[in-house]
Design a protein that fits this description.
The protein is an alpha/beta fold. Helices cover 42% and strands 13% of the residues. It contains 17 helices and 13 strands. A seven-stranded parallel β-sheet has the order 3-2-1-4-5-6-7, sandwiched between helices. The chain has a six-stranded parallel β-sheet with strand order 10-9-8-11-12-13, sandwiched between helices. It is globular and about 65 Å long. It starts with 7 loop residues before the first strand and ends with a helix. Uridine-5'-diphosphate-2-deoxy-2-fluoro-alpha-D-glucose binds next to helix 12 and helix 13. The site of uridine-5'-diphosphate-2-deoxy-2-fluoro-alpha-D-glucose has 22 residues, from helix 12 and helix 13.
């Protein structure tokens, strides 16, 4: 229903690559439901907008998509390296965003009174200063990687910039079990890549923001969260998003929408408790074929039942004589991950350690086998292993058949796996409490609503 008139206008600037825009979109849907008097203009590329707005089960009258030019030259042919498209997009920013923002102001008849953006977009801090409006950057990773970017200068002072080493990070609160090698690339080492520069500028700019929001909950990593609270004007932990529906469900009597066309949840119902391996490397990474082949062999040899979110043709990596039908598991191009991790039959998650995956695994109480690739993933793995004790890295860092079998057995069969499950129960409970009425996350969310409605 298009009821009350809108009196405020908030522009949301979304990073259109990887899974970044999804969590921001679901946060905006929550905000829009809580603040019907605010018009939200959601600014990103036409491709990202189309994916987000067609997938969403609900549309709110006060959230509208506005397309931003992607900056690609005409006749651009994707090279397979996604960073090229990211580079063109960033070159076109912020001018491309300014254009759509003006369109949104004209369409709504309302001046923009607040900017919400992906935290990557440090330049939105400058836009907000110029427009004299609040800026709320949203970080899509976890608190530890965020602190590493905010404290990059300190880290460089203490460790130098040459990179690669085992020096301890104990000068950062909560990092005594972490080393230089665990840091996301670009903090030390290769400082000059476009992404490293972007993240450095972001770290410098975030303390000036009105508030920094994150898909996380305070209790997951309290020491690190407390340092971040001292660095930022406001640090608002408003997650885990997977525990909070985007907005009130259309009818309380309807079950939540499930995407189980593949029948994998029904199949999970037929499996033993904590016996199934779920495998996914997220939305960006494709592991090299020899590692995928080694993992497939490990599954065949060990016989553990599995669900594998696999993009591409599985037959290409299976050993000779095997096909899809001969396997003790399900292969899907996209899995209902949150539901799979929430199912009691799922016993281990083989992951690249993207932040959303880790948080969803905590919420589901599922221990992890980690094979990180880039960015924050290595630090996330170390957090899983060393700070929380709820998972292991594959031995040697690369997937081989013996390393995979060893890790699967450790988590699914041995007492180490049981201990991880016990530790997960504690974190899982903390996550539940955080989202309860008057828990830390709804309180942070209310403060976010206050900022965007002022
Ligand atoms: C980038 O990570 P990714 O997008 O690759 O991975 P995640 O943060 O783990 O997010 C993947 C999301 O996609 C969902 C899953 C997560 O919410 O539930 N999903 C699914 O529903 N079905 C599937 O079959 C597979 C995935 C980046 F690479 C990381 O380093 C960052 O930590 C991350 C956050 O900034 O973004």
């Amino acid at each position: 229903a298009n009821s009350k008139p809108q009196t405020h206008h908030v522009s949301v600037l979304a990073f259109p690559f990887g899974s970044h825009a999804g969590p921001l979109h679901s946060l905006v849907l929550r905000l829009a439901a809580a603040a019907p008097q605010v018009a939200f203009s959601f600014l990103t590329t036409s491709k990202a907008n189309a994916a987000l707005f067609s997938k969403s089960p609900l549309s709110l009258h006060n959230v509208k998509a506005y397309n931003v030019p992607d900056g690609l030259p005409e006749n651009f042919v994707p090279s397979g390296n996604p960073e090229v498209a990211v580079g063109f997009f960033l070159k076109a920013a912020p001018a491309n965003f300014m254009g759509s923002l003006k369109d949104a102001e004209a369409a709504t008849g309302l001046r923009v009174g607040c900017l919400v953006s992906d935290a990557f977009f440090w330049f939105v801090g400058d836009m907000a200063e110029e427009m004299k409006v609040p800026w709320v950057p949203v970080w899509t990773g976890g608190p530890r990687s965020l602190l590493a970017h905010v404290d990059t200068d300190l880290i460089r002072q203490r460790l130098g910039t040459s990179g690669g080493g085992k020096q301890t990070l104990d000068f950062l609160p909560g990092f005594s079990r972490f080393q230089m090698d665990d840091l996301p690339e670009g903090i030390v080492g290769k400082l000059e890549s476009p992404l490293a520069t972007l993240l450095y500028k972001m770290g410098q700019k975030l303390p000036k923001a009105t508030a920094v929001a994150i898909n996380s909950f305070e209790e997951v990593d309290p020491e690190v969260v407390n340092v971040l609270k001292s660095r930022f004007q406001k640090f608002l932990n408003v997650g885990p998003f997977s525990l909070i529906p985007s907005s009130p469900s259309p009818s309380p009597s309807l079950p939540p929408l499930l995407n189980d066309e593949s029948g994998c949840l029904e199949w999970l119902d037929t499996q033993k408790p904590a016996s199934v391996a779920y495998i996914s490397f997220g939305s960006v990474v494709t592991p090299p074929p020899h590692e995928l082949a080694a993992f497939a062999e490990a599954l065949i040899e060990s016989g553990f039942p599995f669900i594998w979110s696999f993009r591409g043709n599985i037959e290409e990596i299976l050993p000779k004589g095997y096909d899809k039908m001969s396997l003790n598991g399900k292969i899907l191009s996209w899995a209902p991950q949150v539901q799979v991790l929430g199912h009691s039959s799922t016993g281990v998650f083989v992951t690249h350690c993207g932040w959303n995956s880790i948080l969803e695994s905590i919420v589901g109480g599922v221990p992890m086998i980690c094979r990180p690739f880039f960015g924050d993933q290595n630090l996330n793995m170390r957090t899983v292993e060393a700070a929380w004790g709820i998972g292991v890295g594959v031995e040697g860092g690369l997937i081989t058949k013996p390393a995979a079998i060893k890790a699967l057995e450790l988590v699914l069969k041995q007492k180490e796996g049981e201990e991880m499950r016990e530790k997960l129960k504690i974190l899982q409970n903390l996550a539940q409490q955080a989202v309860e009425w008057n828990g830390s996350s709804p309180r942070a969310f209310n403060s976010l609503v206050e900022i965007v409605t002022k």
